[in-house]
Give the backbone structure.
Amino acid sequence: MLVLFDCDGVLVDSEIISSRVDSERLSAIGYDISVEEMSHRFAGLTWERISKLIEADLGHALPENFHAETNAELDRRLAKDLQIIPGVQDMLDRLDYPRCICSNSSPERLKISLTKTELYDRFRPYIFSAVAVRNKQPKPAPDVYLHGAAEFGVDPKDCIVVEDSTHGIHAGRAAGMRVIGFTGGMHSWPGHADALTAAGAITVINRMADLPATIEALAAWNPDDL
């Protein structure tokens, strides 16, 4: 059994910071969007995908250097304000299975986030960025999860994914894995759990303290029965 964690919104409470930065900067150029809507619509997507959707709404391209400047501001905020999801360290102490991180974030962003929250040494070298492995296809493509399973030599049916976004759940399911939804991040919204269930999560939790027992329960079930 292998446990594959998404990073943003699952291990580190970064999605709310990202949504705040994006909301502020987009509103400043005339695309009014709340922090809540940013989280609801775009959590789990790469900036490339987000920008295409926003440009379609606007009917024109975003300003030159908008992404680079937004990225720099997000890195600054993450380095200053990022917090670990409550209960993650205790959960890792209790988790008996091999584990890795499979994220849409860049390797550089993962290093910033995991170092700030003192998680880097708990996962390295098994920290995989979707934009740096295989065909560099981000979630909802299953590539990064399949890469993680291959690195450990584990069959996808013996893998459990922990995800906070519908896009990530689609990726885990497309990889042939079982997926636990997580709604314990600050970016969670009413209806979040229902959205994750509809996307294919087998169950949804909102506390990291519940994850080890949930994984044990799933490990005892035959995936063909799910």
Summary: The first strand starts at residue 2 and ends at 5. The CA atoms of residues 11 and 188 lie 14 Å apart. The mean pLDDT is 93. The two ends are 16 Å apart (CA to CA).
